[in-house]
Prior knowledge:
Blueprint: H1 2-24, E1 28-34, H2 40-50, E2 53-59, H3 62-71, E3 78-79, H4 83-91, H5 111-117, E4 127-140, H6 141-148, H7 157-160, H8 162-166, E5 173-175, H9 179-189, H10 199-212, E6 218-219, H11 224-229, E7 235-239, H12 240-253, E8 259-262, E9 268-276, H13 284-294, H14 297-307, H15 322-325, H16 334-339, E10 340-341, H17 348-363
Amino acid sequence: MIRKALWLSATSAFLTLFTVGGHAEDRVVNVFNWSDYIDSSIIDDFTKQTGIKVVYDTFDSNEILETKLLAGGSGYDVVVPSGNFLARQIQAGVFQKLDKSKLPNLSNMWDVISERTSKYDPGNEYSTNYMWGTVGIGYNIKKVQAALGTDKIDSWDVFFNPESLAKLKDCGVYVLDSPADMIPAALKYLDLDPNSKSPDDIAKAEEVMLKIRPSIRKFHSSEYINALANGDICLAVGFSGDIFQARNRAQEAKQGVEIGYAVPKEGAQIWFDQMAIPADAPHVAEAHEFINFMMKPEVIAKSSNFVLYANGNKASQQFVDKAILDDPAIYPDAATLEKLYTVQPYDPKTQRIITRTWTKIVTGQ
Length: 365
């Protein structure tokens, strides 16, 4: 009896250790991505196929992500910074190089996009593209018609001209809370280099923004989606795919809200959101598996079909909805691409000027 009891006790201890060890070895990947930026079924599919649990958190500004990355110890394994932020974060040493031997689906990437993203990440050593798009103007077609007498917007003038924007003040204007997007747009409107680091040029952009500040209801980088869709506002400067999400939500609600999107004729920013692995990521192997999974053509196409953004995966285009692939506002034609500019990272001195400038603009003081 004593022997049996001892055997049972030992067996029980072994099983307990095995179970605890099994839980300790459960595989996980911690992802930090933009809000409203993935079809959640993709996460479920990844877990089903790999057994890796995904802890998925969201942010709505590059500044929030950057603060966490520069502080270190974020606990995230995959993050999605925009290209201009990625470039200076690489310089700060916050990322590790991708192990491309673990990313066979890199062969699916689109050279046209990879060439552009290499401006931020030479050789695409630290990142690969998730989505890309433009910064433009989303608007409520009927409300703009009532206020301005036109149902089509094609110029930054409707936003940066104080007289025009004042006519839209009462029906509501939202603007991205992002100096890296808005200051270059103001410079472009003024026919200046959107990448200018000149304090005088930045001051001119500030002056333009302060003149229209009284007509801006809110600075936020994601709330304009629902605000547009619900008819609560009539204009937003935002990211292309977000505007299209607003358009689709409005159509589904069937409340008569029609949303348009304009890539201003003067030119607009083309941006790239890149998947990268922090240098101190706790689950590096799982991070590579997640990124490789996202680069499967049918997977990233599913994401594009959901979020209405173009992606940098050439092989995925056969799976992208034709209406999306053929929409020049999402996949711009050659003529539009020529007018699109990229934004380079600010050096520390310029960044301080930009930060002070943006604070003055947002507070209106």
